[in-house]
Amino acid sequence: MKDIHTLNRLEQLKALSDPLRLRVLEAFSRQPVTTKQVAALLGENATKLYHHVQILEEAGLVHLVKTRKNRGTLEKYYQAIARDFIVDRNLRSGPGDQGLPVALSERPGGYAGGGAKERRGRAHQVDQGRAQRSRLPPSLLWP
C-alpha cells in the first residue's frame, strides 16, 4: 500500500463524495478486511455496503487482495490503495471555471457534505488556504 495517492480523475473524487464511503475507505486503509467486517466495525448493514465497495473498487481506490473460502462462501478481502489521498490541482480547476473548493470542510454542510456526526474527529482545518491532515486516515487533502 502506498502512503499517498493523488486523486486525478473526477470518478475518484465522486466516489469520495459520500460520507459513508469515506468511512469505508478509512476502514480498508488499516488492513485487508471483508465488506462484512467493515459493516460490523461501522455498525452498518453489510448489504448496504456492497454497493459502496463496488464504487470504490471501480474508481480504483480499493483493490481485492485475497479471497478465502469459508463454509461454502467466498470471502473477499479488500484494501485501500493508499493510507492518505490528495487531490490533483489540475482536477480542481479547468479553463473558464472557478475550480473546486480548497478543502472539503469549506463545503456547505461541512466535511464531504456530512453532518456534525461525520465531521467529528475528521474535519480538516484550513490554515491560510492549505488543508492540514486530519487525525484519522485516510486524509483527503487539497494542496
Low-confidence stretches: 98-139
Task: Count the domains.
Answer: 1
Subunit arrangement of the protein:
single chain
Structural class: alpha/beta
Would you state the CATH class?
Answer: Mainly Alpha
- N-to-C SSE series? EHHEHHEEEHHEEE
* DSSP helix fraction: 25-40%
CATH topology name, in short, is Arc Repressor Mutant, subunit A
Major sheet: size, sense and barrel closure? 3 strands, parallel
Order of neighbouring strands in the sheet with most strands: 1-5-8
Radius of gyration over all CA atoms, rounded: 16 Å
**Which geometry do the CA atoms define?**
elongated
**How many helices does DSSP assign?**
6
- Average pLDDT value? 74
Number of strands: 8
CA-CA gap between termini: 21 Å
List keywords for this structure.
6 helices; 26% strand; 143 residues; Arc Repressor Mutant, subunit A; three-stranded parallel β-sheet
Question: What's this model, at a glance?
Answer:
The protein has 143 residues and is of the alpha/beta class. It has helices at residues 10-15, 19-28, 35-42, 46-58, 89-92, 116-119; strands at residues 2-7, 33-34, 62-70, 73-80, 82-87, 126-127, 130-131, 140-141.
What does this structure look like?
- The chain is an alpha/beta fold and 143 residues long.
- It has one domain: Orthogonal Bundle (Arc Repressor Mutant, subunit A).
- The chain is built from six helices and eight strands, in the order βααβααβββααβββ.
- The protein has helices at residues 10-15, 19-28, 35-42, 46-58, 89-92, 116-119, and strands spanning 2-7, 33-34, 62-70, 73-80, 82-87, 126-127, 130-131, 140-141.
- Strands 1-5-8 form a three-stranded parallel beta sheet. Strands 2-4-3 form a three-stranded antiparallel beta sheet.
- Strand 6 (126-127) and strand 7 (130-131) form a beta hairpin.
- Helix 2 (19-28) packs across helix 3, helix 2 packs across helix 4 and helix 3 packs across helix 4.
- The model is unreliable at 98-139 (pLDDT under 50).
